[in-house]
Amino acid sequence: MTTETGKGGGLTARMRRLAAPRRRGKAARRTGATIRMLAALVLAGGLYVAVAPATQAADAATLSRSAEDGKALFDQNCITCHGRNAQGVDGKGPSLIGVGSASVEFQVTSGRMPAARQEAQIPRKRPFWSGEELQQNADSLGQYIQELGGGPQLPATIDASQGDVANGGALFRVNCASCHAFSAGGGALSSGKYAPGLEEATDRQMYAAMLTGPQNMPVFGDNQLSPQEKLDIIAYVQGMKSDQDPGGWGLGRFGPVTEGLAIFLVGIVALVFATLWIAGKS
């Protein structure tokens, strides 16, 4: 019994000695894999820390002086709704990447931005700034948004006096009158929305609106309306503002519908009074 036990104990010890290197090899491989993974993570983190600040600094360095001023205005007045770097905030304001300086020109100078609240359509109101400060700040904000994400830009000069009023009238009736009415007085759309009147719109605002298509308005790119055709439409609209209705009462310039209604009502009233007068005489 003693001999067999001794032999069995010797075999067991030999098996332990043979298994020990395998366990040590497996543990070494696991340790090596863990060390390599940690080294890779440290290396990736180090590269990110080294490269990311340099990229941000390079981006910041590319901004012009006007765009830097615009960024300061943006961070002070717009970041709450449009988010850091104009990426937008869900439920508050859309992203401004790609809208261009033309959109900023329209929204800021017409007082639509900053908006008081979210609604079906943001109405025109008194601008946040006034006088020369309004245009300077709009230009700076527009330059910042332009350099940040690109988009449509206004031409350097917009001279409506170079427009063809007759051609502008034809283009307006085809492209604009269905929403803004023939008199450019505006009109109702669906879901509480509307096409605003153009009585207070400036040349730059109208040009910017055609380029950017704010809210329900379609975008009229240069392939749809050339720069000259845009000037023609602006000249026509501005010409209507100076028209003094030499033919008489303009009736809101809504066209033949209101004119026919007015004639009908006036005619019926006149006929009723004439009938009563004749009946009284007889």
From TrEMBL:
<keyword id="KW-0249">Electron transport</keyword>
<keyword id="KW-1003">Cell membrane</keyword>
<dbReference type="InterPro" id="IPR009056">
    <property type="entry name" value="Cyt_c-like_dom"/>
</dbReference>
<dbReference type="InterPro" id="IPR050597">
    <property type="entry name" value="Cytochrome_c_Oxidase_Subunit"/>
</dbReference>
<keyword id="KW-0677">Repeat</keyword>
<keyword id="KW-1133">Transmembrane helix</keyword>
<feature type="transmembrane region" description="Helical">
    <location>
        <begin position="261"/>
        <end position="279"/>
    </location>
</feature>
<feature type="domain" description="Cytochrome c">
    <location>
        <begin position="163"/>
        <end position="241"/>
    </location>
</feature>
<dbReference type="Pfam" id="PF13442">
    <property type="entry name" value="Cytochrome_CBB3"/>
</dbReference>
<protein>
    <recommendedName>
        <fullName>Cytochrome bc1 complex cytochrome c subunit</fullName>
        <ecNumber>7.1.1.8</ecNumber>
    </recommendedName>
</protein>
<dbReference type="Pfam" id="PF00034">
    <property type="entry name" value="Cytochrom_C"/>
</dbReference>
<keyword id="KW-0813">Transport</keyword>
<keyword id="KW-0472">Membrane</keyword>
<dbReference type="InterPro" id="IPR009152">
    <property type="entry name" value="bc1_cytC-su"/>
</dbReference>
<keyword id="KW-0408">Iron</keyword>
<keyword id="KW-0679">Respiratory chain</keyword>
<keyword id="KW-0349">Heme</keyword>
<comment type="subunit">
    <text>The cytochrome bc1 complex is composed of a cytochrome b (QcrB), the Rieske iron-sulfur protein (QcrA) and a diheme cytochrome c (QcrC) subunit.</text>
</comment>
<feature type="domain" description="Cytochrome c">
    <location>
        <begin position="65"/>
        <end position="149"/>
    </location>
</feature>
<dbReference type="InterPro" id="IPR036909">
    <property type="entry name" value="Cyt_c-like_dom_sf"/>
</dbReference>
<keyword id="KW-0479">Metal-binding</keyword>
<keyword id="KW-1278">Translocase</keyword>
<keyword id="KW-0812">Transmembrane</keyword>
